[in-house]
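User: Can you predict the 3D structure for this chain?
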Amino acid sequence: MSKIILGGGISGLSAAYYLSKTLPKHPVTLVEASNRVGGWIKSFKPTNEVIFEQGPRTIRPTGPPGANTLSLIEDLGLTDQVLPITASHPAASNRMVYVEGKLHSLPSSIVSLFTTQKPFTKPMVRYLMRDLYAARKRVEDESIYDFTSRRFGEEFAEYLIAPLICGVCAGDAKEVSVKFLMKKQFEYEQAYGSISKGLLRNVFQASKPEALQGLALRARKERWRIYSFGNGMETLPEALSGYITKQGIGVVLNSKCTRLEFVQNEAQLHFGESKTLKTNHVISSIPSASLGEVVKHQHPRLAELLTSIKSVNVAVVNLHYKGQLIRRPGFGFLVPPKENVPILGVIYDSCCFPRSKDTVLTVMMGGKWFEQLFGEDPSEDYLLQVARGQLHTILGIKQEPVHFKVSILQKCIPQYVVGHDEKVREIQEYIDTNKLPLSVCGASYHGVGVNDVILSAKKVVRNLSER
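Assistant: Here is the predicted structure, written as structure tokens:
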């Protein structure tokens, strides 16, 4: 009984990894449209001491999804290559927002919660206490901006949540669902009237935390906040690719599926006019819109649901400067949309993972506002000019970069707008009702982070094995 995995990004590679563990005797083939695996994770090295991350650059170690990824990393033999950032590191303790022409550090300690820090006009604890008396609003879903504005105040939503959403998914907090990042808090309000009451009601009912071991236990003891790898994030997909190949899983590159049909209990994947693969089950890790395109002839309703999950374009500008140019070390800064600045934020790569005495920065641009700011097809030179102009204005960096790279990541981050969970539920119901030999995983459905997509692949494989 063969399995075919569509897509060689981190989710597709993880699905192959878990299949090799769970169903080792089943033949598996991973099919990727491009000439490489790894998806959006790509580490470019202009020199031996400099790494330009063009996609995800760090992973969080917390919670069950974080522990799951750390377990996978251990099994791949990558423990010695992990580069952690602990709680005391400036990249963990100093995260900033750019408001009204100035950089402001966000509260990051107990003491800072009780002091007024610009751009806020009162101590953070005052915003948090507002939840105690804010009125409940009974809704199925709402934007994360509206939810946090109701419960904690407009400044909290404007200067904390809105830039956070820009950083996490390059999206608009006024459109993105509260369930994207604050699902539990939203459920507390709906059930008990406030987040605070929900926390109090559940403090004694919380399930016993999973016993950690190995790398996950070390991460908790050492208080890791985020981590990467010595040779860059691409270390992870490269290791997964090497592992599954050794397990006998076939990896086929440069093969774009153009049509997917289901005939009785079989799936037929067409690649152009001349090549067809047949399987008893397909695991799709490609973007939902891409899956929608290949099933639309046979299942138009499913295609409609899949293509309704929209994604945004992001421009990533990596720059390498000689010398140390950052005066206030930290993770970097984000820009609230209301500032009308043509960048989403800047990451201080050389502060997070210093590999030399030079300065390495990443400027993130576009997202929800890509076409509005840059048009449909901006040149790389223009994007570089905009990025350098903002670095000059905000950080005072005038000098020419020694190396730079401009990448336009087309439709790279799905947007979990209000109603997303219901849409995903409808997609799964359609697949189940029509008994399609199809499973879906990846960033389009249950989280856009590295941990999320790895865990989504694991769950899909677990469901298959239980059948």
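The chain has a mean pLDDT of 95. The two ends are 13 Å apart (CA to CA).
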